[in-house]
């Protein structure tokens, strides 16, 4: 049995290395075209500069995250150089902070925090702490939640909390560890508890949006948001829950977060397409027309690999095997390594809407795919 396991590990490592070799050709070609731009979704096969359109857009850190992962894995300095271009451009978000929301974590974990962890750049440390304090400032102490959205024209949305928020808490845990300031810890944990108790259903599926009364913290209603509808199961939200709660366990060692992550993971794996380990946009949407989302698959794979680090040895392979199946399917059926086009992972969806054109290639799908491959090779570093 041990020999068979070793042979399988060798096969997975060989496959992952072959994928990594393709990535190391693709990303430098993209850098030549992107230069100091910030990619999001390719238009006619090529990235445009999302930073020019909206510097506060929530995905603006993922390109730098890819570059920092590759810098760590290869030691090649131009990855660091171009990652730092993005970081410096995001300084403009502090001057335009009215456009920032709870996804400050996504933006600055992949830029300033990654930079500080790898280079000890003091300016990056200051940027990261500034961002963490802005995230702290969104905390509602009555409801014990971090406000996700900015008010709309009618002044509403002050009580909105979105499942994606679990991924942003790592910024607060990092600030806690760096400064010893337990405000960061308290806000991260109490927010995680609120999400755990309200977003995650008993079967492990998740609500995308919970709306609370900002004056007393009462749960008013839930919304489907980017999923099919209220009560549905948006697969990317499910993936955020898997990974986000596993990360809260990593940073707190509180078993309830790991248990929540596992419940979300088991629901995801029970509903994923068993023939190819690929996820629908929403697990509770009508089968016709069937819509799929590669980004949910990639995020879930990273979350499963994170869970595997924290469970008993005999349970680890359950999560590792599932993650490998997901990543292999993405490589076989949905990866484009052509150096003359931008974006690697195809067939992504921003939301469950058959009337909206598919985004197809989305920068965060590439980030999590690359992180997953590097995790399998033991060449990743924790941006989170």
Number of strands: 5
- The total count of helices amounts to 14
The residue-averaged pLDDT reads 93
Q: For the terminal residues, how far apart are their CA atoms?
A: 34 Å
Q: Which ranges are low-confidence, i.e. pLDDT below 50, for 5 or more consecutive residues?
A: none
The secondary structure category is mainly alpha
What is the radius of gyration? 20 Å
Fraction of residues in β-strands: under 5%
Give, in order, the helices and strands.
Answer: HHHHHHHEEEHHEEHHHHH
Summarize the biggest pleated sheet: 3 strands, antiparallel
What share of the residues lie within helices? 55-70%
Structural shape? globular
Widest beta sheet: strand line-up? 3-4-5
Question: Could you characterize what this model shows?
Answer:
The strands form two sheets. A three-stranded antiparallel β-sheet has the order 3-4-5, with no helix packed on it. α4 packs across α6 (104-119) and α12 packs antiparallel against α13. With 384 residues, it is mainly alpha-helical. It contains 14 helices and five strands. It is globular and about 55 Å long. The chain has helices at residues 2-34, 50-53, 62-74, 77-89, 91-95, 104-119, 122-136, 165-179, 182-198, 235-252, 255-271, 294-308, 313-334, 363-377, and strands at 139-140, 145-146, 160-162, 209-212, 219-223. It is 57% helix and 4% strand.
Q: What's this model, at a glance?
A:
By secondary structure, this protein is mainly alpha-helical. The protein has 14 helices and 5 strands.
Which features characterize this protein?
two-stranded antiparallel ribbon; single chain; 3-stranded antiparallel beta sheet; globular; 14 helices; mainly alpha; 384 residues
